[in-house]
């Protein structure tokens, strides 16, 4: 590489490139099933980018003669492990298909397959319709690994870009730009003559929203992924008008009768009524749909919670009626991530309505959607099984942030401290030099450290949320919401009296929420202005920071955009461990004050891990003096409420009898199952660390160009 101040790098930083999507190409190789070997498939399948070989071969099959012969064949090349996995019988049931895919993939993950593994699907001559499973098996692990499809179909070629399971409910179309040109089928093998296939990407068609000039209620944040503009809309007006405006935009994008909306939300958002409000607004505009609720929390971010027969049945009904299923995820990051996977697996359209700041400025700004690996109620690894899938629209109504918890607000800040430390101000001369090798960075480069000036707004928002009357007002809404949830089933299939009682409860909740929001507008003007500034600046800077890397340079977050994983590997592992520990503590009767004090959301664990990363960098001599103080100070500045303190977690460990060695052992086990493994060649006891050096905004460089983010001289 040239030095960062070279004209070549400056041209790269200042470039204005367009779409970064490239149509995939796949080669079909003619083979005789009777003489096919695993070694031949491996030799003809392109290895993962940045690698010259495969880490393992995961053979998946549904029985049949070819699979049986491969299983019994002697291994000549033993340089990589080969493991066989049999797909369970599904009987054309969408729910059983969904479960079968994830059951096979969980086995692969526990056997330590990684991004450099090859999934080898072996088809059956009597059941060519099963070949559609191949793409899903490669699409989901780590959001995409290589697949070699061995088809026994002697009549027609498999389509490597468009495939579906026998039920027709689960389907994938790599020509849809929402998938960003991602195709996991790397090579195909079968009895037909050899040929090549090239994808034909369609035009990107988001639900485009352009705020009118001078409109103070609508704000569109500049954002792109792979050169594709993604409408990210902030509605700063009244909540009910914001819901109506969202429904109007969606209705305008789809002809009457052509849409089947499916609103998905967790328990808390259900009790607040946000999901039902969106569905009701769409129903008023002629789009009848369905309402799906699920358990809340990280331990419920698992495939079994979402692969419900009724949910997949609604998708099947919509497709049978010629309608477009549209999943609308209303809530936080867990809901958005998991619902996005279901939308991607069913080929449905997707819209996100974030109700927490972190979901808006962090989760929705990534095309990554994923389930975690959750076994026996414990998170073994976060976000391990998922895909890349763009929403058609992200619509945020600011007033929903008022019902956030303090943990949620701290989560937002924790992610902000990560971004500020790793990026600082790339619009400055020093920042341009640090990030000169990022393609098209100038379009979105800005000063992320502006967030530090919004500390007053952060503290005012936490004070508002923690104020006793505010907490009681929110609790009253949630209590009524619980009663509404219980009455909903009776209203749907009951008498007119039951429906009237249900409607009365919903109206009561609407009035309670109006009074709750009125409390915010009763705050002193200075406090409201400060809170608005905190939300506006943090959203703009974090969204812009993500766009700087994802717009053109690294939309799949595999190379330079890995910097956004700073402090995440350890943070994820602690978060996963803590979620299980909290559940255990509640079930075993540990004092409620100890348990609740120890609750730490995603961004809080990231914030704690930022401090730990700074300490590690200091021990290594990479971060000293003012640079170290500045790095650590970004977290400490926002810790006046103790949201990033580890002390309460230590107290929980003591209450559960968990020793320090036990804690470290379990956390490190989570680190070793992290979803980023396989990016670089590492042994079981090695890792690739990300650390800040000298000062915030400058990261340690790497000699590996595939892992490099910035160069240090």
Short description:
This protein has 713 residues and is α/β, with parallel strands linked by helices. Helix content is 43%, strand content 15%.
Layout of strands and helices, then pairs:
Elements: H1 7-14, E1 25-30, H2 38-44, E2 57-61, H3 65-72, E3 82-86, H4 94-110, E4 118-122, H5 133-139, E5 146-150, E6 162-164, E7 171-173, E8 185-190, E9 195-198, E10 218-221, E11 224-225, E12 228-229, E13 232-235, H6 239-253, E14 259-266, H7 267-272, H8 274-284, E15 290-294, H9 303-306, H10 309-320, E16 324-331, H11 333-346, E17 349-354, H12 357-361, E18 368-375, E19 378-388, E20 393-397, H13 406-423, H14 429-434, H15 455-466, H16 468-493, H17 496-521, H18 525-550, H19 568-587, H20 592-598, H21 602-619, H22 625-637, H23 647-656, H24 660-672
Parallel strand pairs: 1-8, 2-3, 2-4, 4-5, 5-8, 13-20, 14-15, 14-16, 16-17, 17-20
Antiparallel strand pairs: 1-9, 6-7, 10-13, 11-12, 18-19
Relevant terms:
alpha/beta, 15% strand
Structure description:
This protein has 713 residues and is α/β, with parallel strands linked by helices. It is 43% helix and 15% strand. The protein is built from 24 helices and 20 strands. The strands form 5 sheets. A 7-stranded mixed beta sheet has the order 3-2-4-5-8-1-9, with helices on both faces. A 7-stranded mixed beta sheet has the order 10-13-20-17-16-14-15, with helices on both faces. The longest helix has 26 residues.
């Amino acid at each position: 590489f040239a030095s960062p101040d070279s004209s070549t790098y400056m041209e790269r930083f200042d470039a204005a490139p367009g779409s970064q999507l490239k149509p995939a190409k796949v080669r079909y190789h003619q083979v005789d099933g009777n003489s096919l070997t695993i070694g031949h498939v491996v030799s003809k399948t392109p290895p993962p980018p940045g690698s010259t070989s495969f880490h393992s071969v995961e053979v998946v099959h549904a029985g049949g003669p070819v699979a049986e012969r491969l299983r019994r064949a002697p291994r000549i090349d033993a340089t990589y492990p080969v493991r066989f996995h049999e797909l369970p019988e599904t009987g054309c049931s969408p729910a059983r298909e969904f479960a079968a895919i994830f059951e096979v993939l969980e086995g692969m993950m526990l056997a330590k397959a990684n991004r450099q593994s090859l999934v080898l699907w072996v088809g059956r001559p009597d059941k060519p319709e099963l070949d559609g499973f191949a793409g899903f098996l490669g699409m989901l692990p780590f959001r995409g690994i290589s697949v070699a499809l061995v088809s026994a179909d002697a009549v027609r070629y498999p389509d490597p870009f468009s495939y579906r399971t026998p039920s027709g409910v689960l389907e994938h179309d790599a020509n849809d730009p929402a998938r960003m040109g991602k195709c996991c089928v790397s090579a195909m093998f079968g009895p037909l003559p050899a040929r090549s296939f090239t994808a034909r990407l369609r035009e990107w068609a988001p639900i485009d929203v352009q705020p009118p000039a001078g409109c103070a209620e609508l704000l569109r944040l500049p954002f792109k992924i792979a050169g594709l503009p993604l409408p990210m809309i902030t509605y700063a007006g009244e909540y009910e008008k914001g819901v109506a405006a969202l429904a109007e935009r969606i209705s305008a994008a789809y002809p009457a009768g052509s849409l089947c909306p499916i609103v998905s939300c967790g328990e808390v958002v259900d009790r607040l009524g946000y999901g039902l409000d969106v569905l009701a607004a769409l129903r008023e505009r002629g789009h009848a749909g369905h309402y799906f609720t699920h358990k809340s929390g990280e331990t419920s971010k698992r495939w079994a919670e979402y692969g419900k027969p009724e949910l997949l049945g609604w998708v099947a009904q919509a497709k049978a009626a010629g309608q477009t299923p549209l999943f609308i995820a209303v809530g936080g990051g867990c809901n958005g991530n998991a619902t996005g996977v279901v939308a991607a697996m069913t080929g449905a359209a997707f819209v996100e309505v974030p109700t927490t700041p972190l979901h808006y400025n962090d989760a929705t700004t990534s095309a990554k959607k994923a389930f975690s690996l959750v076994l026996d109620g414990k998170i073994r690894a976060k976000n391990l099984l998922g895909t890349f899938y763009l929403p058609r629209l992200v619509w945020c109504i600011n007033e929903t942030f008022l019902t956030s918890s303090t943990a949620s607000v701290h989560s937002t800040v924790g992610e902000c401290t990560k971004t500020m430390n790793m990026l600082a101000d790339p619009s400055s001369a020093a920042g341009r030099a640090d990030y000169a090798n990022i393609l098209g960075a100038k379009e979105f480069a800005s000063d992320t450290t502006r967030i530090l000036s919004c500390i007053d707004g952060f503290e005012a928002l936490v004070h508002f949320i923690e104020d006793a009357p505010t907490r009681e007002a929110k609790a009253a809404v949630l209590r009524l919401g619980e009663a509404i949830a219980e009455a909903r089933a009776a209203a749907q299939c009951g008498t007119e009296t039951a429906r009237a009682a249900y409607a009365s409860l919903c109206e009561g909740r609407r009035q309670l929420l109006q009074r709750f929001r009125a409390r915010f507008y009763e705050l002193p003007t200075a406090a409201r202005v400060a809170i608005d500034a905190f939300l506006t600046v943090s959203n703009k800077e974090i969204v812009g920071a993500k766009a700087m890397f994802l717009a053109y340079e690294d939309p799949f977050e595999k190379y330079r955009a890995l910097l956004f994983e700073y402090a995440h590997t350890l943070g994820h592992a602690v978060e996963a461990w803590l979620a299980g520990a909290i559940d255990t503590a509640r079930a075993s009767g540990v004092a409620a004050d100890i348990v609740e004090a120890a609750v730490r959301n995603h961004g809080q664990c990231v914030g704690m891990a930022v401090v730990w990363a700074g300490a590690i960098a200091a021990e290594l001599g990479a971060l000293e003096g003012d640079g170290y103080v500045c790095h650590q100070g970004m977290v400490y500045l926002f810790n006046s409420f103790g949201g990033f303190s580890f002390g309460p977690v230590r107290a929980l460990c003591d209450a559960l009898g968990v020793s320090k060695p036990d804690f470290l052992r379990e956390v490190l086990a989570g680190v070793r199952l992290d979803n980023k493994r396989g990016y670089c060649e590492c042994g079981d006891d090695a890792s690739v660390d990300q650390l800040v050096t000298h000062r915030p905004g400058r990261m340690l460089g790497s000699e590996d160009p595939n892992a490099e983010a910035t160069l240090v001289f």
